[in-house]
């Protein structure tokens, strides 16, 4: 892939434009803010690659899950149109049998598939099957169908209180994705200072491009960034596509050769149908490293991620920002183990509240003290993350 920076006017060599790399949003942890500003100043105007995860990192919520729920709720995706070979019956770790036909809806089967396999804690990639399945079951849909469903999600995200998307009452519900203001500010600051910004996501690539094109790039313009993130700098999970003549296409090549496809022009996207054959490498767990290597050819200067699925790409990066949710203890031990392995340098931590709509927490201790009553698990998480944040050495 051509290694070009995002399209903004280049400042004179050696100068930093904009706000001198300062991050002004109130949600940043102060230590993380200082380290990020130092990294921005050090790497400015060198076209250094920076990679963001999308779900629960750039946005609060999971776009693939929200899109899957919309497709199901609107009837674009039904159990009847999903081939049986894609949805085998299986037993959950507790012994309960799950089938697609016996599920209340598609999302209930998906949620069950996300649980660990029979290997239990030995399974280091427990959610990979569910992530892949959520893309494979789109077989037969047009790309325009997926984009239309994502546009429905975008409309909900603009509401004052976006809330949740629910398919069956009382069953799975999914937070409507909205962009964290602090992340919008960080992306804008990086682009203005001539970094090469990429998004690598396990969600379907067309949905991520749609939300970036219609929401994030609009928000970036408010920060003085004219053109935002380019379509070919967005890597997501995709399947092989076919046209009416049964020619097969790969997204990573088509996005560079067909500008109208890259722009999600409906007159073009409605001519491509999805197959169930995943395009490899798939940006799920360590597959993200393969995608980064293929597209960029080097370790990123900075990676930002939140989940165990981002551990590999964070380990691959020179510098790392972990978005840590206060209520997810299972993730904390995985990240702390990686930090011990890689050393305390080059790491930053930004806590996010899991109460209500997730938001950045500038002071973990103050946040914990202000919660009355506070769940014991949240109190323990706040203590652990606060101690870990102090332990990390400045880059």
* Overall 3D form: globular
Instruction: Please state the CA-atom Rg, rounded to the nearest Å.
Output: 21 Å
- Oligomeric category: single chain
Judged by helices, strands and strand pairing, the structural class is alpha/beta
Report low-confidence residues grouped into runs of 5 or more: 1-5, 7-18
Number of helices: 15
Summarize the biggest pleated sheet.
Answer: 6 strands, parallel
Query: How far do the termini sit from each other?
Result: 30 Å
Q: What's the average pLDDT? A: 90
**Which architecture of the largest domain per CATH?**
3-Layer(aba) Sandwich
- H and E string: HEEHEEHHHEEEHEHEEEHHHEHEHEHEHH
Strands ordered across the widest β-sheet: 9-8-1-13-14-15
Instruction: Please estimate the helix content.
Output: 25-40%
CATH fold name of the largest domain, please?
Rossmann fold
Strand content range: 15-25%
Any idea of the CATH class of the largest domain?
Alpha Beta
Give the tally of structural domains: 2
Got a strand count? 15
What name goes with the CATH superfamily of the largest domain? HAD superfamily/HAD-like
């Amino acid at each position: 892939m051509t290694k070009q920076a995002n399209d903004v006017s280049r400042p004179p060599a050696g100068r930093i434009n904009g706000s001198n790399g300062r991050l002004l949003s109130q949600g940043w942890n102060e230590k993380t803010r200082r380290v990020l500003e130092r990294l921005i100043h050090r790497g400015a105007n060198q076209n250094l690659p920076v990679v963001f995860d999308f779900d629960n990192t750039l946005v609060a919520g999971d776009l693939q899950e929200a899109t899957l729920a919309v497709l199901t709720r609107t009837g674009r995706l039904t159990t009847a149109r999903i081939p049986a070979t894609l949805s085998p019956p299986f037993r959950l770790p507790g012994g309960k049998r799950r089938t697609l036909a016996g599920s209340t809806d598609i999302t209930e089967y998906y949620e069950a598939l996300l649980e660990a396999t029979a290997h239990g804690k030995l399974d280091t990639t427990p959610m990979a099957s569910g992530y892949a399945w959520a893309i494979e079951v789109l077989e037969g849909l047009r790309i325009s169908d997926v984009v239309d469903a994502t546009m429905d999600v975008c409309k909900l995200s603009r509401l004052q209180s976006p809330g949740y998307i629910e398919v069956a009452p009382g069953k799975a519900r999914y937070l409507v994705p909205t962009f964290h203001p602090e992340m919008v500010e960080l992306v804008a600051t990086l682009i203005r200072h001539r970094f090469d910004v990429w998004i690598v996501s396990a969600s379907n690539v067309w949905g991520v491009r749609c939300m970036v094109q219609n929401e994030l790039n609009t928000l970036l313009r408010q920060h003085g960034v004219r053109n935002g993130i380019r379509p070919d700098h967005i890597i997501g999970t995709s399947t092989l596509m076919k046209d009416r003549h049964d020619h097969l296409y790969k997204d990573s090549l088509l996005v560079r050769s067909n500008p109208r496809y890259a722009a999600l022009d409906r007159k073009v996207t409605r001519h491509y149908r999805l197959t169930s054959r995943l395009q490899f490498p798939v940006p799920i767990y360590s597959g993200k490293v393969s995608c980064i290597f293929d597209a960029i050819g080097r370790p990123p200067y900075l990676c930002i991620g939140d989940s165990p699925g981002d551990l590999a790409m964070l380990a691959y990066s020179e510098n790392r920002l972990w978005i840590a949710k206060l209520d997810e203890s299972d993730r904390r031990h995985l990240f702390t183990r990686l930090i011990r392995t890689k050393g305390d340098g080059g790491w930053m931590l930004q806590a996010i509240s899991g109460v209500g709509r997730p938001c950045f927490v500038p002071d973990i201790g103050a946040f914990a003290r202000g919660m009355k009553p506070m769940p014991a698990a949240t109190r323990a998480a706040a203590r652990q993350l606060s101690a870990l944040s102090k332990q990390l050495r400045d880059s």
